[in-house]
Amino acid sequence: MVFDFLKRGADDAKADMPGEAKASATGPVIAYGNAGRVAWSPRDTVSLTRSGFSSNPVGFRSVKLIAEAASALPLVLQDDQQRYDIHPLLELLARPNAAQGRAELFEAFFGQLLLTGNGYLEAVLGEDGQPRELHVLRSDRMALVPGVDGWPVAYDYTVGSRKHRFNVSEGASPICHVKAFHPQDDHYGLSPLQAAATAIDVHNAASRWSKALLDNAARPSGAIVFKGADGQAQLSADQYDRLLSEMESHHVGARNAGRPMLLEGGLDWKPMGFSPSDMEFQKTKEAAAREIAQAFGVPPMLIGIPGDATYANYQEASRAFYRLTVVPLVSRVSASVGHWLAGFSDEAVKLKPDLDQVPALAAERDQQWARVAEASFLTDTEKRSLLGLPPLAQDQ
């Protein structure tokens, strides 16, 4: 019939149409003027890491505390039907490369994420297209290349004058990019170091001031007053230079602390004491240290900062540290890494932390298990779902 002919023509025309491409409407706006170019990070990551981590004990301890606690958290792999004890992804994570184990790999990954706001994981693929090794790449060497739709099409890894480009526009991406939330950057994450940059400068300046004070016999300096015979005379140029030379060689520095000073006629030593404002530097240093720890989400009590009574005891501070900082970080990173690795084999598996094996959260988990177990109006399948467990085989 005519209508069937028309219908067949419409179907043929529909088949000849290209597939629908879905993309964000704001992508071309973000990529305007930047397509094919490197999107550079807005802050000098190297300098910030040097001053806030390598040269600051509070920043160093905060990053190490979070990275070590997060990397030690046990991970589980499961799908909608079961939890896996043996799986190729678990074997890969247990020994990601020849030089690192799971804890070392994730400690480096979490450290890069905390220091720069960005974490990059590289997958080395075998002949079958499956990951054989995982490597953490330094964030300060990585640069993202956005495409015309705003999404990354490549990552440039630069070491000195050499550059390697990872193309991510076709197939599974060899790079897993996890970034922290940044309200003003579409491609890079915001590091806690950037939020705590002012407090880090204050803390480092206070440390340098304390060091200079120790070099000066742990007390403020004084003044040498020359009165002369009539009270109006001045030192000659030779006398002035000789006095400076003797002061620098015999009375300045920690090794000369406490050495008595021999003054000739007309010279008088006037020591200077601390003013009340000078005595506040220690409180300023402690306040800056507390701000650095708060930027990272570490309770000040855990890194030995005095004067903080927010937590009743150390045990509560440890629970808050895991509940508010470590667990959210590991949950977000493990979900991203698990989804990325599952994409190579098209498996619907999830990677997440096993909270039942975290000693600091044992009391809370016991209460949750008891509450769920006593809920008689719930079925066993619903109880297992509330606890994050897959259903039993007979329930499926």
Give your account of this protein's structure:
The chain has 396 residues and is of the alpha+beta class. The protein folds into 3 domains: 270 residues, no CATH class; 45 residues; 34 residues, no CATH class. The protein is built from 13 helices and 11 strands. A 3-stranded antiparallel beta sheet has the order 2-1-11. The protein has a 3-stranded antiparallel beta sheet with strand order 4-3-8. α4 packs parallel to α10.
Averaged pLDDT, please?
A: 80
Number of DSSP E strands: 11
* Poorly predicted spans: 1-10
* Approximate helicity band: 40-55%
Which structural class matches the secondary elements? alpha+beta
User: How many structural domains?
Assistant: 3
Number of helices: 13
Order of helices and strands: HHHHEEHHEEEEEEHHEHEHHEHH
**Gyration radius over CA:** 31 Å
In percent terms, what proportion of residues is strand?
Answer: 5-15%
Terminal Cα separation, in Å? Answer: 49 Å
Task: Record the strand order, biggest sheet.
Answer: 2-1-11
